[in-house]
Design a protein that fits this description.
This protein has about 140 residues and is of the alpha+beta class. The chain has a single domain, classed as Thiol Ester Dehydrase, Chain A. It has 3 helices and 6 strands. The chain is globular and about 45 Å long. It starts with a helix and ends in a 7-residue tail after the last strand.
Length: about 140
């Protein structure tokens, strides 16, 4: 099986079982080994008391993108350390695109950078994630 086909199969399996990513309305745009690109539209129930998207929504969106990138070689990987910087506010109706790029693919850890942009191409958040690689697979 080709590497990118396996990567796509793994992410399809993950999405099938990821009810939270489904609730957020995430659409998978592109998957390659160590890379993912996803999209979602912000809904009214995602807004905080200040009228902007709740930080947990933006974090969860980036975290899903990170998970799709670090697991798509079919090696179960879990978050070890993550951080996010919010650079611009996000509003109801905004279409967000997240892109995860692999910076390091080690035997036991991986390092990823996720950029979230709105429909105007403005960067609204930057996420960094380190994952721990287990000895398990996601699909057989």
């Amino acid at each position: 099986m080709q590497a990118n086909q396996l990567a796509n199969d793994v992410v399809a399996h993950m999405m099938q079982n990821d009810l939270f990513s489904q609730w957020m309305g995430i659409k998978v745009l592109e998957i390659k080994e160590g890379y993912s690109k996803i999209q979602m539209t912000v809904r009214p129930e995602m807004i905080n008391g200040f009228g902007i998207v709740h930080g947990g929504v933006a974090f969860s969106f980036a975290d899903s993108c990170f998970a799709f990138a670090c697991n798509n070689r079919n090696v179960l990987s879990v978050a070890l350390d993550t951080s996010i910087n919010f650079t611009k506010p996000v509003h109801v109706g905004d279409t967000l695109t997240a892109e995860a790029k692999e910076l390091h693919n080690g035997k036991s850890t991986g390092l990823y950078h996720v950029t979230i942009q709105n429909q105007k191409g403005h960067t609204v958040a930057l996420f960094k994630g380190t994952c721990f690689r287990t000895d398990k697979t996601l699909i057989k």
